[in-house]
Design a protein that fits this description.
TIM Barrel, about 425 residues, 11 strands, binds manganese (II) ion, 16 helices, alpha/beta, manganese, L_rhamnose_iso, about 45% helix, binds alpha-D-psicofuranose
């Protein structure tokens, strides 16, 4: 039988030292919120039910085009990754699912993988295909594109790979496929824009035809990289056009880092909700581009404004609104487990804050064109310290009140450092 990776007694001991403070702080916050007519228990129940998926690739150390500095005890295969994800979920209780990337997470026995995940209390979120790099031994190269390649054989190979991802996902209990392609061009004139988009539709139509009825397909747009002049699915407009052409099972996924600086992402989110085309998110943060920094580390208010749209949509009961929440980050200077615990908590915190917006007062302020009152309502929610609520939710769920401190006290990293020999090579590569 699989045991959980962190000793539950350690969590209990660590929590025991903090329990009294959590109780007092929670009570105090409850009183504050009651004065605003907010029932803290209602917010706590919503936060407890909230989950964000861990990207399997996030538990390994990331890298840039220039270098990668591997950390100790990096996962060697998908089973090691799952174990690291189990640590994150055991300590934080905010990450009940894992999002796999194929071929990085291929293994020989998916029913064993599924069983292992179940033993850890984990499920599988969206599957991610990879046609942005070549797999060993594949007949056609993706150097000049995949689903949109000018060569039919290369496109067929990319379609077949996506269908293989669906098959693996079926064995694991996943219900969505995320497709991101790096296809595009590096020189003006290199690519016929309209024909490339037509080829994209033609290829993705074949993938949609292989989707089970209860699956969704998420199209992930990205402004640039690796193609730096043009990208076929460059923005939410292209993504929306494609998703609309491909039918109701296909929606648009918003990776926060995939936009030009200063783009109003919350407005994009609102548009996609209105069109019933919001698939979900890859959360991360950025300063300059697709920096893949930890969620909320640079612009927590921007993350809050996105969640404000999401909570508003749920509050208004928008039909079909069911976004998938995932992290997608690259951890270059931190222990990836710590970054993911902290980022999941940040996402959870932002959700809780957005739940505190006084919707009726905001409606009234908007209706009366009272711009200052409206914006102050958002700020009041955002500036509320909901930490005691997050701690109480974790305490009740058997997770750690202070997950990073408990993680450090557990010695997990040193333990896996000894059990998982370091891999050779410290070359560049975005993972
Ligand atoms: C592309 O930059 C991306 O955001 C896509 O989600 C990929 O699948 C992921 O990063 C992993 O590198
Ligand atoms: Mn992404």
């Amino acid at each position: 039988m699989t045991s959980l990776p962190i000793d539950p007694q350690l969590i209990a001991d660590q929590n025991a030292r903090l329990e009294r403070h959590v109780r007092n702080d929670y009570e105090h916050l409850g009183e504050q919120l009651a004065r605003r007519d907010v029932d803290i228990e209602r917010i706590a129940a919503q936060v407890a039910a909230f989950g964000v998926a861990i990207p399997s690739w996030g538990v390994g150390t990331g890298g840039t085009r220039f270098a990668r500095f591997p950390g100790a005890g990096e996962p060697r295969d998908v089973f090691d990754k799952l174990q690291d994800c189990a640590v994150i979920h055991q300590l934080g209780r905010a990450t009940p699912t894992v999002s796999l990337h194929i071929p990085w997470d291929k293994c020989s026995d998916y029913s064993e993988l599924r069983g292992q995940a179940q033993a850890y209390g984990l499920g599988f979120d969206a599957m991610n295909s990879n046609t942005f790099s070549d797999q060993a031994g594949q007949p056609h190269s993706y150097k000049f594109g995949s689903l949109t390649h000018t060569d039919a054989g290369t496109r067929a190979q990319a379609v077949a790979h996506n269908i293989e991802c669906i098959e693996i996902g079926k064995a694991l209990g996943s219900q969505a496929l995320t497709v991101w392609v790096g296809d595009g061009s590096n020189f003006p004139g290199q690519q016929h824009f309209r024909r490339a988009f037509d080829r994209y539709l033609d290829s993705t139509r074949q993938i949609v035809a292989a989707l089970p009825a209860d699956w969704r397909m998420f199209l992930e747009h990205k402004i640039c990289e690796p193609a730096f002049y043009s990208t076929v699915i460059q923005d939410w407009g292209s993504s929306y056009l494609a998703a609309t052409a491909l039918g109701p099972q296909v929606q648009c996924l918003v990776d926060l880092g995939h936009h030009a600086p200063n783009v109003n992402i919350e407005l994009i989110v609102a548009r996609l909700i209105a069109a019933n085309k919001l698939a979900g998110f890859h959360f991360n943060d950025s300063k300059y581009g697709d920096d893949d920094l930890d969620a909320g580390s640079v612009s927590p208010y921007r993350l809050f404004l996105v969640f404000n749209e999401l909570v508003a949509a749920a509050h208004e009961g928008v039909a079909g609104f069911n976004p998938a929440y995932m992290l997608d980050q690259s951890h270059n200077v931190t222990d990836p487990i710590e970054s993911l615990i902290d980022s999941a908590e940040q996402v959870q915190r932002t959700y809780a804050q957005a739940l505190l917006v006084d919707r009726a007062a905001l409606d009234a302020a908007q209706q009366a064109n009272d711009a200052l009152a409206a914006t102050k309502l958002l700020k009041r929610a955002f500036q509320t310290d909901v930490q005691p609520l997050l701690q109480q939710v974790r305490l009740r769920a058997g997770a750690a009140v202070d997950p990073i401190a408990t993680y450090r006290a557990s010695g997990y990293r040193a333990r896996v450092g000894a059990a998982r020999p370091a891999r050779a090579g410290g070359g560049g590569g975005i993972v």
